[in-house]
Amino acid sequence: MIEVLDLRKTFYDRKKGEVPAVRGISFTCQPGRVFGLLGRNGAGKTTTLRMLATILVPTSGTARIEGFDVNERPGEVRRRIGYLSGDTKLYDRLTGRELLQYFGALAGMPGPAVTARIHDLEGTFGLAEFLEKRVGKMSTGMKQRLSLARVVLHDPPVLIFDEPTSGLDVMGARDVLRIVQDLRSRGRTIIFSTHIMTEAERICDEIAIIERGSILAHGTVDALCSKNGGCSLEDLFVKTVEEVGVGV
Fold first, then answer.
1. Number of domains, the chain
2. Pairing mode, if any, of strands 34-38 and 206-211?
3. 217, 204 Cβ separation under 8 angstroms
4. Which of 99, 167, 202, 205 meets the CB 3.0–4.6 Å disulfide criterion with 33?
5. Structural element, H or E, at residue 242
6. pTM score, two decimals?
7. Which of 23, 32, 18, 19 shows the shortest CA–CA distance to 4?
8. pLDDT for 61-95, tens place per residue?
9. Are 20 and 50 found together in one domain?
10. How many whole angstroms separate alpha carbon 162 and alpha carbon 192?
11. Are both 31 and 63 inside the same structural domain?
12. Cα(99)–Cα(85) distance, rounded to whole angstroms?
């Protein structure tokens, strides 16, 4: 379970002074559900997710992951999450198997457990065809599937995906969405950040539209669209953002 409680982050710029990136957002995501965080580039999505992943320290407010506070128990939080960013880098000179073995060791998993886990993930992630291939020779889609396998290797209950289909073709994106849906069916708590409305409509149980670091709308896709005259999610998104005086 994820509980976000009045989370805020302010950066300092020499010329501009204090620059608020996240302005007091709150939401909850339950196990077995996908929570979509929708926003334009620069809206505050990635900053929010980095705070949840304990990469950034909140300026104020907090979040709890599986009951552990990101400020007070960051180590416990890291053990319980899998985090995939939009710019995850892999080691080109390792094979797919070697890379997973390496990250399994970093997570403190015994060698036999890593081997068994890789075997379990082969079918779900379609890894068999490239486990012995060097990462540097893999396609973008292969690398993304390998990245997803790396994120879930230690079987965390909470998963945070920051635009995981970025740069993928249609088939690669479909593979990623299928994997996310499978993880949801296995009871994982998932946050899925995207600016692609069709993805959100397809897999998210609940969404929040974020702009300028604030949540402008929050609820299920059906409920929010019905409330706004039965419009599409894309139309709802544009309308919501434009209502705060920001052209899209």
1. 2
2. parallel
3. no
4. 205
5. helix 233-242
6. 0.90
7. 23
8. 999 999 999 999 999 999 999 999 877 788 999 99
9. yes
10. 6
11. yes
12. 17
